[in-house]
Specification:
single chain, alpha/beta, Rossmann fold
């Protein structure tokens, strides 16, 4: 299972990525960057894709939750979006967990292909 986390759960980029993962027969869940919503999910994801934008920087508790989950469970992280917010997010995570960054304009086919290939090769563990 793949989590897509963003400040806006229903944005165009997230919707396109969910659609692309579904075409690859991968289970995907899109979440708003909200600790209550994220912690209510009982399944541990195989990877997490974070949408980097200015809005998500206003959700530091959600980013801390994701970071702690990634460390505890060995989950690979992928980021996509704007460069400046992405740089801020990257400073919050140990680089061992960040497997790829996709800057705007984001090609969702490339994101899905990269995440799928990483999971096929390495599985969930970092």
């Amino acid at each position: 299972m793949i989590w897509i986390v963003s400040a806006n759960e229903k944005g165009f980029l997230q919707h396109s990525l969910v659609e692309r993962f579904s075409q690859l027969n991968l289970e995907v869940h899109s979440f708003k960057a909200d600790v209550k919503q994220l912690s209510a999910e009982f399944s541990v994801p195989d990877s997490i894709v974070i949408t980097a934008d200015e809005e998500i920087l206003g959700k530091p508790d959600a980013l801390i939750y994701i970071r702690d989950l990634a460390v505890r469970e060995g989950i690979p992280i992928f980021t996509m979006g704007d460069k400046d917010p992405m740089d801020m997010i990257l400073r919050s995570f140990d680089s061992i967990y960040i497997k790829a960054c996709f800057h705007r304009p984001v090609d969702v086919k490339e994101v899905a292909k990269t995440v799928d290939a990483y999971l096929a090769f390495a599985g969930r563990q970092v």
